[in-house]
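User:
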Amino acid sequence: MKVAAIQMRTISGQIEKNQKNGEKFVLDAIHKGAQLIVLPELWSTGYHLSKESFMKLQPKTKEIVERFCDMAKKYEVVLVVPFIDKQDADLFIALAVIEKTGEVLQVYHKSFLWNKEKLYFQPGELRFEPIQTSVGKLGTLICYDMEFPETSRILALAGAELIIIPSIFSFSSEKRWDVQLPARAVDNTVFVLGVNAVGENSFGKSKLIHPKGAIVREAARLKEEILLCDINLQDIKQVRKNIPYLHDLDPVLYPHHMK
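Assistant: Predicted structure:
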């Protein structure tokens, strides 16, 4: 399977420009053979906005998801598209997993909000459930969710083969990004794809991590890039034979709802 992480520069508040840029990158990735394509967190709106601005732009982000549904069906690719979801008066940082049929298989709401995000958004339910797609069983987290090891462990125990993490990681957290992504992969013997933005205090370095914890490929620091990677999900079986963490894990330590 060929996957693409779209490491793009987002301009806060410039949704039309961001949309055009994002679509251009996605089409380029499709033409390069990508079967699974992932955009960064809040890519269409940018991050540094007021609650009023997020509220105003929210309907447009939903429309953009619908447009990507059409693209997924037309080009027969699986897309992971972050957006802003709204339920009643509450806003959520969200993503949609879109199957190559154009169907939205899953909408995930970010569960752990970082810093000022708590002023603008509501946290999602603590539900970490992978979804079976035509390219594999995918687990999804958003940015700060990844920094709690339990979230990835729950997804792995539920059968996730690839954990996808759209993000807006800042310079002050760069070291954590470099340490935590490989840790999540090797601790759970799964593939991990971290998709970061660049610009507006984000440093890039999107990367795919192998179940052994090795970096398969890493994007440039500070530059826009399509990170293209080949994944063989069969590697997971071999790694788990050699590193049987999940087999040897005592179920008494499982999260209560996994027992």
